[in-house]
UniProtKB/TrEMBL annotation:
Gene3D superfamilies linked to this entry: Catalase core domain
Annotated source species: Ganoderma sinense ZZ0214-1
Keywords: Heme, Hydrogen peroxide, Iron, Metal-binding, Oxidoreductase, Peroxidase, Signal
Enzyme category, top tier: oxidoreductase
Active-site residues, as the UniProt record annotates them: H77, N152
InterPro entries assigned: Catalase, Catalase_AS, Catalase_clade1/3, Catalase_core, Catalase_haem_BS, Catalase_immune_responsive, Catalase_sf
CC terms in the record's Gene Ontology section: mitochondrion; peroxisome
GO biological process: hydrogen peroxide catabolic process; response to hydrogen peroxide
Protein name (record): Catalase
UniProt record similarity statement: Belongs to the catalase family.
Protein role: Catalyzes the degradation of hydrogen peroxide (H(2)O(2)) generated by peroxisomal oxidases to water and oxygen, thereby protecting cells from the toxic effects of hydrogen peroxide.
GO molecular function: catalase activity; heme binding; metal ion binding
Lineage of origin: Eukaryota, Fungi, Dikarya, Basidiomycota, Agaricomycotina
Catalysed conversion reaction: 2 H2O2 = O2 + 2 H2O
């Protein structure tokens, strides 16, 4: 096993050799202003039983601070756990063919990382074995700025229209009146937005209840672009494969664990790192040129479609490991701000509309959740110097860029780096994306069928049982019927079993044909659930 890195919160996150654990330094108790104070439990009152004194500033500080301990939790992905480690390049020759990314430029080059895993719908204290996608956000502190890969443990997502995200999330959280998770609302949305079906099937297979955070893969989901210094680019998706292998709970086990140890995943991650069993993932890339994307069977800007490794082969580019637990969860994990808008030269968004909307949403929520200067918090600050014209604001704690001019001055010049390339957005493939993304057509049932056919008989049965258990509890018959009919349209055996289980008759649904390049007969594959 490689020597781990030390993530030092106090010295600007320098990479250091790990040293033996030192005893916690003994410190003297003080008030907030650093003045030694004799006893934390002491307070001032008149006589033995009289009222308290306003002059007791230690007491005032204690409550003033406590009263403000909670900050807004993340609006989604509130429940999570994280750790630090490093990424190491293993195939710079391949990567350099396609991207100028500094962090991929030399074999053996290591970049310090922080990862936060999460569930999506639950509040920050909810059970982390809930049936839910898992977030898998990686912060790379590269020599040339921060890159965040804000991934999930699934190659696709429920939506491909960004405007659906807030209402969709509402249906997966609590009902406005009852404040309960509401199965009618949950399935009403999914049944009337059929492009979500593949993600729904993954969620209701045992992939929806992973055994902790170490035993799952991660996907960027969206198509991004790798760009070279000459401005040429390709489409790329990244995929991280767990070295621990995929392991899931059955619904019965997940329910039991959620009751007996709702912190199971958090504890599993923490304990394994503490024991020196560092979890690792191998990072792969899938690449398509713009020309190949034109004739590819799926719209590459459609987040509900996977590329599939049979269709677009994957090539290893590196490995990453988690080697260090946080010293302080709030400082290093809760305050971490991941966003797809943290990009570096060589890594660029595609025109996927959901991705484009995410470029706004994350930093915006973080300005609210953590404050306008959240990039100065040590876990978020880049390791290279920041020089720009952003100034002031609440909690500006790092010197505010000193006396440097706060505009493009002719008196004291700021060095402007050479513009590395001209990103010619006109070259981007559009392929009818805007029109074909929103309308549900036959092509939207291709991946649900591929997924169903890839499952073992046992995994197919578990999927049916998991859906029946949940959908069966939706009170409204039309909601259950619409959803069962959608499953039926994807696969008759699946849909009929669900319809029987939830007590409805299926109705035949029809959808327009997919785009002309779409041909379902090509699409049989035999992978297993560990994909
Ligand atoms: C967290 C918005 C889709 C992965 C968040 C947060 C917001 C958000 C506001 C909270 C961020 C914070 O408080 O720091 C959106 C919007 C989406 C979208 C508007 C679509 C329009 C996605 C997709 C993925 C994803 C497609 C994965 C491919 C994550 C992850 C986190 C997160 C992993 C947790 C990050 C952390 O651990 O701090 N999202 N999201 N989201 N999102 Fe999304």
């Amino acid at each position: 096993e490689e020597a781990p890195f030390t993530f030092d919160m106090n010295t600007g996150l320098q990479i250091q050799e790990q040293t033996a654990d030192e005893d916690a330094t003994v410190v003297e108790y003080t008030s907030d202003n650093g003045s030694p104070y004799p006893h934390p439990y002491q307070y001032q009152r008149i006589g033995d039983n009289g009222p308290l004194l306003l002059q007791d500033t230690h007491l005032l500080e204690l409550f003033g601070s406590f009263d403000r301990e909670r900050i807004p939790e993340r609006v989604v992905h509130a429940r999570g756990a994280g750790a630090h480690g490093y990424f190491e390049v293993t195939n710079a020759d391949f990567a350099k063919n396609y991207t100028m990314m500094d962090m991929l430029s030399e074999n053996g080059l290591r970049t310090p990382i922080t990862i936060r895993f999460s569930t999506v719908g639950g509040e920050s204290g909810s059970a982390d074995e809930a049936r839910d996608p898992r977030g898998f956000a990686v912060k790379f502190r590269t020599r040339k700025g921060i890159l965040d890969l804000v991934m999930n443990n699934t190659p696709v997502f429920f939506i491909r229209d960004p405007t659906k995200f807030p209402p969709f999330i509402h249906t997966q959280k609590r009902h406005p009146a009852s404040h309960l998770r509401d199965k009618d609302m949950f399935w009403d949305y999914l049944g009337s937005n059929p492009e979500s079906l593949y993600q729904v099937m993954r969620l209701f297979s045992d992939l929806g209840t992973p055994y902790g955070f170490r035993h799952m893969h991660a996907w960027t989901g969206h198509t991004y672009r790798w760009v070279k210094r000459d401005g040429s680019w390709v489409y790329v998706k990244l995929y991280a494969e767990s070295m621990q292998g995929v392991k899931n709970f059955t619904n019965t086990d997940a329910t039991a664990i959620a009751g007996s140890n709702p912190d199971f995943a958090t504890q599993d991650l923490y304990d394994s790192i503490q024991n020196g069993t560092y979890p690792g993932w191998t990072m792969f890339a899938q690449v398509l040129t713009a020309e190949e994307a034109e004739t590819f069977k799926y719209n590459v800007l459609d987040l509900t479609k996977d590329w599939g490794f049979d269709d677009v082969p994957k090539t290893e580019i590196g490995k990453f490991y988690l080697t260090q637990n946080p010293d302080n969860y709030f400082a290093e994990i809760e305050q971490a701000a991941f966003t797809p808008s943290h990009t570096v030269d060589g890594w660029a968004p595609s025109a996927d509309p959901v991705l484009q909307a995410r470029l706004f949403s994350y930093s915006d929520t973080q300005r609210y959740r953590l404050g306008v200067n959240h990039m100065q918090i040590p876990v978020n600050a880049p390791i290279d110097a920041v020089a720009n014209f952003q100034r002031d604001g609440a909690m500006n704690v790092n010197g505010n860029q000193g006396s440097r001019p706060n505009y493009l001055s002719t008196l004291q010049k700021i060095q402007l780096p050479p513009r590395p390339y001209v990103d010619d957005m006109h070259q981007q493939w559009t392929g009818g994306a805007v029109a074909s993304l929103s309308a549900v057509t036959e092509i939207d049932f291709d991946w649900p069928r591929r997924f169903w056919n890839s499952l073992s008989a046992q995994d197919q049965q578990n999927l049916i049982d998991n859906v029946v258990g949940h959908l069966g509890a939706a009170p409204t018959e039309s909601v259950r019927q619409r959803m069962a009919s959608l499953f039926y349209h994807a696969n008759a055996i699946l849909g009929q079993a669900i319809a029987n289980g939830v007590g409805v008759e299926v109705t035949a649904l029809t959808f327009p044909d997919g785009p002309t390049w779409f041909n379902t007969t090509k699409d049989t594959q035999n992978s297993t659930l560990d994909y």
